[in-house]
Amino acid sequence: MQSGTYLRNGPGLWHIGDYNFRHLFDGYATLVRLHFENGRLIMGHRQIESEAYKAAKRNNKLCYREFSEAPKTDNFLAYMGDLASLFSGASLTDNANTGVVTLGDGRVVCLTETIKGSIVIDPDTLDTLGKFEYSDSLGGLIHSAHPIVTDTEFLTLLPDLVNPGYLVVRMEPGTNERKVIGRVSCRGGPAPGWVHSFPVTEHYVIVPEMPLRYCAQNLLKAEPTPLYKFEWHPDSKGFVHVMCKASGKIVASVEVPLFVTFHFINAYEETDEDGRVIAIIADCCEHNADTTILDKLRLQNLRSYTGEDVLPDARVGRFIIPFDGSPNGKLVAALDPEEHGKGMDMCSINPAYLGKKYRYAYACGAQRPCNFPNTLTKLDLVEKKAKNWWDEGAVPSEPFFVARPGATEEDDGVVISMISDKNGEGYALLLDASSFKEIARAKFPYGLPYGLHGCWVPKN
Asked: What is the pLDDT of residue 75?
């Protein structure tokens, strides 16, 4: 295996003082580091020192609005002040607890849904170095938690909550300036669909418009609704838009069946014998248009498992977006969901195949009964089969693919996952990406909380 560092970000501290948070996504960010070199593994972890985390530690109480939490106000005037600071973004959290990316210039940035929650860290010491300040004047309060990051560019979506739509923006390595590629206007309403992630191909940005839409009224409420900051609008329908990276023009905009997804896996261009693009194929972890997955992630639900099978079904949802002017696209299962236990989330691919035709993906699946994804699964989207890893009582986090140096096959490499084991223990797991057999595991000296998304930082 090549030398380098795997970083994983995610919520890891769910209480402050004697107050316990409600939702998995509320926790203060915990960064875990696995450094591989000369056959040895060195592990460490630290809290990301966001303003939200530091204020909570200093005041022994919640001070910023988290995913499902809002600071308690003492009176009506204080509540009105909180609303004013919400509209300005001042009261929104900068708790960067979702993902971590290595930019083309080598900087490592932790991210969440709020733009202010973009924080630069040192991948060797895990020190918090400061805010990632965007130097442009685009403004906005939120963006996709999962930008597309390569050696040559950074692409993301900025939802417009006032005039429903999305700005598609690009940032060059070595700069902090986002430049607009184009704008997508929503076809449904009353607000843009949630865009936690989105896919790209070699020439296009795919902008999903999900009927699970941002909701300003829910954002203003002190107590969470079942869908938190969102609202389900099936009557507004679902759409997928395709924008040309070079021109910013919309080249396709189709209605699709209702869908719910947090995470897109990959997308690619389907061409005819003359090389003309005839369709876009975009794959995601799709929850059968069922929004209840959000409420299943309340900590109370996760911690009170009684053995019943309560994890909502999910599948690899494959969007087929035609380029022939058709008004409708398709959404089908890319393989039989029984192959991966009808659980599907937290996906990765070989990054060399980003935006290209690909065969393999790695994700978390399910061994039923369960209340949370509890397997690692390798998806073969050509043979439509899956290989699964399962260890009773273990909860694996996102499987992350790292290619073997000099590899020529798509699945020649290793898959890294951090496992939260029974009895509060944990270990790092390495699987051979081809056979999906275990290569090694390294037990942590202490237990670690479940985490979300990671990145690879090559040596040098």
From this structure: 61
263 labeled binding residue: yes
State pTM to two decimals.
0.96
The string of pLDDT tens digits covering residues 100-149 is 999 999 999 999 999 999 999 999 999 999 999 999 999 899 999 999 99
Question: What separation in angstroms does the CA of 445 have from each of 4, 250, 354?
Answer: 21, 52, 35
Q: What is the β-pairing status of strands 40-47 and 28-37? A: antiparallel
Domain with CATH 2.130.10 in the chain: 134-390
Give the number of other CB atoms < 10 A from CB of residue 226.
13
Using an 8 Å Cβ cutoff, are 307 and 231 in contact? no
Residue type, 389: W
Amino acid occupying residue 411: D
Q: What is the pLDDT of residues 150-198, one digit of tens each?
A: 999 999 999 999 999 999 999 999 999 999 999 999 999 999 999 999 9
- The encoded tokens of residue 447 equal 């237990």
Q: Which residues contact 125 (CB under 8 A, 6 or more apart)?
A: none
- The answer to whether 196 is annotated as binding is yes
Residue 328 neighbours by CB distance under 10 Å: 11
Is 143 marked as binding a ligand?
no
- The number of residues making up the chain comes to 460
Residues 6+ apart with CB under 8 A from 338: none
Distance CA 64, CA 94 (A): 8
**Residue 453 annotated as binding site:** yes
Q: What is the DSSP letter of 298?
A: B
Residue bearing the bigger pLDDT, 68 or 212: 212
CATH architecture of 134-390: 7 Propeller (2.130)
> Residue 156 has which token pair?
């993301």
Assess whether pLDDT exceeds 80 at residue 80: no
Average pLDDT over residues 200-207: 98
* CA pair distance 202, 448, nearest whole angstrom: 38
Is 217 exposed, middle or buried (CB count within 10 Å of its CB: 0-12, 13-18, 19+)? exposed
